[in-house]
Amino acid sequence: MTFLEVARKDLMLYVRDARFLATLGLFSAALVLILSVAFGPIFRDPAHEAAATIWAALFFAGVLGLSRSQDLEGEAGASDALRLTGADPFAIYLGKTLANVLLLAAVFLILLPLTSVFFDVGSLPALPTLLCVGGLALVGYSGWGTLFAALARGLQARELLLSVLLFPSLVPLWIGAVKLTHALWDGGTIEPVRDWIKVMVVMDVLGLALAAWLYESIQEAAE
Amino acid sequence: MILRADAVRKRFDDRTVLAGASLTLSPGDVVFLSGANGSGKTTFARILATLLPPDDGEVLLDDEPVGEHRRAARRAIGFATHQPLLYPGLTPAENLEFFGRLAGIAGAAATASALLERFGLSAFAHAPLATFSRGMLQRVVLSRALLNNPRVLILDEPYAGLDTEGVSALNAIIGECRARGAATLLIGHDRDRAAGVTTRAARLERGRIEAA
User: Fold this and answer.
1) Angle at which helices A18-39 and A46-74 pack, to 10 degrees?
2) CB-based contact (8 Å) between A72 and chain B?
C-alpha cells in the first residue's frame, strides 16, 4: 500500500529529527502556558478560553509540521525520486496527509491534559467525543495543509504563503472545532452546536477531493 | 528504438538551453554525452527522465510520447543526477527498500540488498546516510537508479566521486544492462572512465546534439 509506505517513511523521519520534535512540542506547550497566564488566573469563561487556546496552538504547530513535511521532500531532491517511482500521486498525498494527522494527533494528546490542567476544564465522559472532534479537525487541517504545503514548496516565503492560504480556507473547520470543544468543556455535550460536525465533515471531504483533483499537477509543477 | 528525443527545445527565462536536441537510444546502446558546463546536459537528462517537460519537441518511449504515459515511462527508466535523490534521514537500505516498494518491485528488500552488495556497501547498509563520503553516497545513488532493472538508464555524471573499484562495478553493471538489451545514456566530461563500455559518443553544443 503506497500511502502506508509514504506515511511510515515520513513518521520515521519525524521521529529521528529530535530538534524538530522538541521545537514542535515546546512551541505548542509554551503557547498554551502563555495564553493560560494571559487569560488567568481568574478565568471569565474557561471553557471558551481553553478551546480557543488549544486550537490556536494546534494551528501554529501544524504550520511547523506541514513545512517540515515538505522540507523532507525538498532535501537532496527526494521528491524527484518519489516521482520517478511512478507511484500514484494521490497515494503519495494520502500518505503524507496520514503522517501529518498522526503527528498533530500526538501534539493534540500532549496539549489536551496541559490545557485541562492550566484552564481547569474537561471531563472524562466528554473525552471520547472530544477525540472525535479532534480527529475531524486534524484530518481536514492536514488534508488542506498537505495540499497547500506542496503548493508552497520551494518558495522562499513558504511559511508565510502557507499561513495565508491555510487561514482563510480553514476558518469554518477551526470555528467548528472551537465551538464543539467549548460546548463539550462547558456543558459536556455537543448538542447545542452539533451542526458544526456537518460543516467539518464537508470541509474534510472537500480538502481530499481537491487534492485528488490537483495534487498531481502541483507535484509535477513543483519543478 | 527504445527512447527517442525529437527536436527538444527548452528555455529558462531569456536563455535558450536546448535548441532542437535530438537523440535516439536503441536496445544495447551505451551513449556517452559530453558538453561544456552549462551546455544543457542535465536539463536534457531531466527531460528524458520525464522530470521536466520540454517547451517544444517530444520524447518517445517505445514510440509512445512519455508525457502521455508518464507513470509507465518512469517505471522503465533509471535516473541518477548530481542530487542524491535520497532521504538523508534514512539508511541506504531503508531508502532503497522504500523506493523499491513504491515502484512496485517484487522483493524490494532483496533487490536493495543485492545492489548494495554489488557496490560494496553491505557493511554500511544500515548506517546513517549523513555519515557517508561522496563516493559512498554516489554508490547508493547509482543503486537507486538501478532498482527497477530499467530498460533505459540515464546517468548524469555517474563517475563523480567513485574510486577505481566503484568505476569497475558500475561499468560491469552497464555491460550487463547492455547485454540484456537496455539502453544507457552516460553524461559527463571524463569519457576515459567509460571507455570500455560505450558504443558511441555525442556532444551537446549550442543546444543541439552532434556525433562526437
Assistant:
1) 160
2) yes
